[in-house]
Amino acid sequence: MDLTADRTTFKRQSSLSTLVAHFFGILAVILMLIWLLHYREGIEYGSDNPLKVLNVHPFLMYCGFLFLVGQAMMTYKTSYASHQVQKMVHGGLHLIGLVLGIVGICAAFRFHDKLNLKDMVSLHSWIGLTTFILLCLQWVLGAFTFLAPQSSSGTRTRMMPWHVLGGRALLYMGIVAALTGLMQRATMLGQSTNAESRLINFTGLAILLFGVSVDFSVALGRYT
Predict the structure, then answer these.
(1) Which secondary-structure segment (H or E) carries 141?
(2) How many Å apart are CA 148 and CA 135, to the nearest integer?
(3) Contact 139/91 with Cβ under 8 angstroms?
């Protein structure tokens, strides 16, 4: 068996998966912006219009949080950089995504407060907040394990499989949260136009394919 040839094949396939992930990831960003800016009221956290505040939530939770989490995962396994640079960019993108995610979550609670709605009553909110909290814990644990100088190589070796598995699982949980959020919003809109309904569906499909492509890229990258 030619291990060098196998690694080259896996590297090529991983790079292709990364390109596909970027395509669907950016496509989802574009579709979401068209939806929120053209069909809905726009995006403004400090607006007196509650719907503009609500629109901040899907925008930041995907474009700011989930998209950057996917980028962070691919950066660590597929970028052409030193291992230390890969780790720093991986952790930095996650941190930026988490900060933007906090703002996105606050936007949802702000919308509820403006309309005197109850918080945390939907399946989307349960999955979404659970995923976000677990990813915060994953980041903290990863920072202490893989970035802290006092962490031993044995600890890093033992934790690495669980860190990778947890990250991939949380990516899919984030995808589920995004899709249930889109379904919930479409239900709230009720009799929306056919064009808007199709746009929401295509946005959801792009997000799903982005997540799958990220996972393929990361999985294949481990064999290069």
Answers:
(1) helix 123-142
(2) 18
(3) yes
